[in-house]
Amino acid sequence: MIFNSLLYILFLPVVYIVFYITKDQHRWLVLLLFSYGFYASLNAPHLLLVLILITIISFYCGSVLGRTTDETKRKWVFLAGVTGCILILVIFKYLHIIMPSSFANIYSSLLVSIGISYFIFQSVSYIVDVYMEIHPPEQHFGHYSLYMAFFPKLLQGPIERAGDLLPQLKKPYVFNYDTMRSGMHLFAWGLFKKAIVADRLSLYVNPVYGDVHTYVGLPFILATYAYAMQIFFDFSGYTDMARGTARLFGLSLTENFNSPYLAPSIADFWRRWHISFSRWILDYIFKPLQMSWRNLGQHGSALALLITFFISGIWHGATWGFVLWGVLHGVYLAASTYYRPYQKKLHKWFKLDKSKVLRAWQVLVTFNLVSFSWIFFRMGSVADAWYAIIHMFSGIGNVRAWFFVEGNLELVRTALALFVIVISVIIKHYTRIPQTFYSQPLLARWTCYCVICFLMLCLYVRADSQFIYFKF
Q1: What is the domain partition of the chain in residue ranges?
Q2: Other Cβ atoms closer than 10 A to 128
Q3: Would you say 187 and 240 are in contact if contact means Cβ atoms under 8 Å apart?
Q4: pLDDT digit string, tens, across residues 240-262
Q5: 238, 469 in Cβ contact below 8 A?
Q6: DSSP character for 432?
Q7: Which of 15, 118, 214, 317 is deepest in the core (most CB within 10 A)?
Q8: DSSP letter string over 241-295?
């Protein structure tokens, strides 16, 4: 059951109705049971046992850390808890790579890792924050279990900190029409981004990246930019649906994307892209490494960045394509630590600090650097990635065949979907139409909703297509 499936569309109102009619003190239990049911409905129901195990381990570690004053004991409990959680993650994500093929064939179905990274990252952050006395240990096991298992953010995040989500879970639910309406709109917007835009772009990305030897030249360049857009709309669409779902229950999840392709630098890109993950690796990997090597100055920061993003690449997948993607971003960021002091001086000398042309150039360069790295991310195979890069500038190529790979009608639908996205962003950020719309009569608004739903059905690509980050 995934967000863009009919089953989830039917599941969600059932959860809300049961949640609404239940007494306030028991609503956490309703959400917890439905969250466990949601996770068990996937093709790997045994992972529910892993989720419960991780919940018990991290809750127990937090409790012991909270009541123990012996620093030696606290340190051992902290190390045992973090190591245990990470070890479970490693087993499920990487054991099938190193074990014999006969063993892998037998146990491959048991070693799927749907959603496991996200709740293990949450458990690690909780143990670290309690150990560092950033957040007090949670006393209510039920509330903590819901913090770990809350279904909208279970499969692909956002990775929530205990200090952000746990207090919300304890507050009484108060129905608010505006909040519910905004949640439904956000969910619908996310569904549009995923099912209409991202899935439609995949029709043009998959033929090129799925068979690199069929195309040369311009189709590689266009497919690379198309994939950059596809992965953004796919992942941010999921996040919007997760945040919209949570908002129906009066809960606010982290905004995971903030116009990342408008970032003027790679560092700013990572402040805007997969924000909850970026903060997690910043706080729990980069900062400890940077502190350990602080005597090395810039060299220590650069090395910490390289190792952090190498680990990020490995987390996405144990293939050289993902590793190179991570290392590339590490190199980008490490280089910027050396370049930044000179950049500031140059901007000051030439009075470029407030230049709109300079900012546009920085955004363009950053977008192209990120898009280039996506080649390794999407290909997986380094040999195929290098083939695409080498043949990317081999002339026009059979670009006409690529444009019409799905026929004339699909090309028109894709152009229409992208046009709707652009117009929607302009309307939202640069006009007062949304405020005016909500003041219109009920009949007029619902007529507009019906028209939008009809257009979405016309542009819909396919049901139940998986999200790109579903496998991470």
Answers
A1: 6-173
A2: 18
A3: yes
A4: 999 999 999 999 999 999 999 99
A5: yes
A6: S
A7: 118
A8: HHHHHHHHTT-------S-GGG-SSHHHHHHHSSHHHHHHHIIIIIHHHHHHTGG
